[in-house]
């Protein structure tokens, strides 16, 4: 269950919590991301699965969620004799994307608060004048 914003502000939160807060990512997604961040070279899904001690298909789903959220990048590596495979590495613009997301969210919340005020608080003022 998602905590209210007031509850979230009262809790201690580590910076890794931003992955869950901004994009609803899971604990495994965070483990995969940390694995990629702490590795010098891009990794295959098989290597990621081994590092986080999960089945390949489970690791692949985490990789897909991280790709969709923009936290990691996929690169194609070609074999000399033909064929290819994919490797994954952290995206370079993660914090910029989070800041942009936060700014967009803040602007949207401002609009919603204004709509709330127009709909409810100004109506209350008009109703009190009628009484």
- The ordered H/E elements are HHHHHEEH
The level-1 CATH class of the largest domain: Mainly Alpha
CATH H-level homologous superfamily name of the largest domain: Winged helix-like DNA-binding domain superfamily/Winged helix DNA-binding domain
Distance between the terminal alpha carbons, to the nearest Å?
42 Å
CATH architecture of the largest domain: Orthogonal Bundle
Helix content: 55-70%
Mind telling me the C-alpha Rg?
22 Å
Low-confidence stretches: none
Strand order of the largest sheet: 1-2
% residues in beta strands:
5-15%
Largest sheet: 2 strands, antiparallel
Shape: elongated
Number of helices: 6
In short:
This protein has 131 residues and is mostly helical. The protein has six helices and two strands; from the N terminus they run αααααββα. Strands 1-2 form a two-stranded antiparallel ribbon.
Descriptive report:
With 131 residues, the chain is mainly alpha-helical. It has two domains: 1-91, Orthogonal Bundle (Arc Repressor Mutant, subunit A); 93-131. It contains six helices and two strands, in the order αααααββα. The protein has helices at 5-10, 17-23, 27-37, 45-52, 56-69, 94-130; strands at 72-78, 84-90. A two-stranded antiparallel ribbon has the order 1-2. A hairpin with a 5-residue loop joins β1 (72-78) and β2 (84-90). α3 (27-37) packs across α4 (45-52) and α4 packs across α5 (56-69). It is elongated. The relative contact order is 0.10.
């Amino acid at each position: 269950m998602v905590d209210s914003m007031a509850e979230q502000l009262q809790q201690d939160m580590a910076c890794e919590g931003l992955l869950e807060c901004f994009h609803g990512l899971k604990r495994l997604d965070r483990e995969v991301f940390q694995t990629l961040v702490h590795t010098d070279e891009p990794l295959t899904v098989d290597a990621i699965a081994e590092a986080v001690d999960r089945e390949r298909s489970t690791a692949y789903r985490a990789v897909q969620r991280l790709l969709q959220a923009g936290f990691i990048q996929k690169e194609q590596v070609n074999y000399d004799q033909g064929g290819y495979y994919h490797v994954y590495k952290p995206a370079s613009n993660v914090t910029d994307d989070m800041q942009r997301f936060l700014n967009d969210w803040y602007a949207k919340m401002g609009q919603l608060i204004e709509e709330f005020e127009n709909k409810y608080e100004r109506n209350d003022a008009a109703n009190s004048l009628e009484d």
